[in-house]
Every structure is written in C-alpha cells, then in structure tokens.
Amino acid sequence: MTEIFFPASAAVAASRLRHLSRNGPRGIHHGRNTSGRSGTSPDFSDFQPYAPGDDIRNVDWNIYARTDQLFIKRFMDERELRVSLILDASRSMGGAKWLYGCKLCAVLGMMALSADDHLSFMAVGGPKPSVLTAKGIRNRNRFLGHLEQLPSPEGTGFTDAAASENFLGASIRYVVTDGLEPPASFRPLLRKLRKSAGEVRMILLRDDTPDIPVRAEDVRFVDSETGKAVDVSLTPNLIHRQQEISEQHFSELASLCREYGVAVLEARQQEATLEFVSKKMRKAGWVR
What we know:
- The protein is α/β, with parallel strands linked by helices.
- Among the domains are: 2-11 and 80-208 and 261-278, 3-Layer(aba) Sandwich (Rossmann fold), CATH 3.40.50.410; 40-79, no CATH class.
- The protein is built from nine helices and ten strands.
- It has helices at residues 2-5, 8-15, 61-67, 96-114, 140-148, 158-163, 186-196, 236-259, 273-283; strands at 33-49, 71-79, 82-88, 118-124, 130-135, 170-177, 197-206, 218-222, 229-233, 263-268.
- α2 (8-15) packs across α4 and α4 (96-114) runs antiparallel to α5.
- The longest helix is centred in the C-terminal third of the chain and has 24 residues, at 236-259.
C-alpha cells in the first residue's frame, strides 16, 4: 500500500531535494545540508580578506604571492538539521485536503531522512497526537507507513491542541494547515513555536473550489469542525460579504505570521506536491 500512497519515483525525486535553513542548523553532528555559514567542510565557498583572529591555516598563500594581500578561504559548514513537521488533524482537513497534507509531509520528511537530518513529525488536533521521530534513510518506509495509517482527522481544534504540546528544538519547523480557525487562535501557537525553532514556516492548504456558491440560491452550510448545519438563502450581497470575510480572514492570519516572523506559502490542492516543493518552495528559498 505504501507504493500507492507514495510511489518510488516520488521518493527518489524527494531524496534529491534538501531543506535550506537561513539561520543555520541547531544540530551539532555533521550532515549533508549547507548551513549558509562558513566552516570546515571540504566544499569551497569563497575568499574574504584576512582579519585578526582568522585561522591562519586557511590563508591562500598563492594569492598572497601574487597580490601581497592576505585572503582566507571560506568553506561551507555542513551540519545536521532538525526538521519538524506539524500537520493539522482537525476535522476541516478531511477528504482530499488530508491526503494532500499527508503526501506533502511525506515529501518534506523524505527530504530530511535522505539528508541524514533528524526528523520529528506530529499530527495534532484529534483525540491524541500522532508522533514519530526518525533519522536516516533506513527509516523511510517506517515514516511513510506511519503517514499512510493516520486516521481521518476528527478533531475540533488544531491551534489549542498544538499550543499545549511540548516541542523539541528544531532548525526548521513546518506547520501544514488549512488555516480555517480564527486567526487570533494562532497567536499562542506561533509564539510558542518561535521560541523552539530557528525558523517557522506555515504551508496553507487552499482549494481552488470556492467555499461559497457564486450564484444566489438556497443552500445548507455545515461547519466542518462542529458538524452544525444552517440553512441560508444566499443573495448577491451576502455572497460578496462572505467573500470579503474569507479574504479578511487570511489577510489577518498573514499579518499575524509576519508579526512572529513566520514565513507563509499557499499550496493549491490542484498542484502536485512535488511540484509545489521543487518550484514554489525553491523559489522562496526554503529548499535547494
């Protein structure tokens, strides 16, 4: 069944991608990710003028012989990243959105495991969180199997449940959610996450199918979190007002994320997960 959920071709493609950390990894072990700072790996980065305190062993004497100026060679420091994935398991994430979120986490997790990074995964919002920690490509099938066997989301509150959890320190923490809970409810969660991670990145799962009918008619709305239904006679003015409310909701959430230094990308369910990661996330500087 794992091959159906996440084909081998997707695993191979994901294994070639790497997470990028702007703040530098928190891990102390050598890995396969470039931290963005100079260090002692054999991969050359560039030259910089010598300054008192620099390691004289890194002086390029050939340049000195030609220019009579001291330059040192800089190398890229490769360190282990600690990658954390938090998946919204509240009821609004059901159906195709849930499958998309799981497959997106599969890509992100495979990237970390292939780079020998430390991976922690948590699906939270249901009766109890589903947690997995792993490191190394040997845990690939274990991780994919865990995702495949996750129960359908039935929780009623992602932000409150996630904010009550204790998170290990991370270099990069991804939050995969539809963002449909009140923006203010994300504040305690974002505040907590920023304290325990070098970078926090939110991936908002959006659907191109409108939540609100585009023509006037009698409809029944069902709250995806509580299951409560209400019958409404839609008018053009009411449709327009509801669209404004939806736009304002995500605008407030984006503003809150900026306040806490949380980067945000929208993933449309109509685009393939690998395409989203390899194109949009790469363009944003999240992966290479």
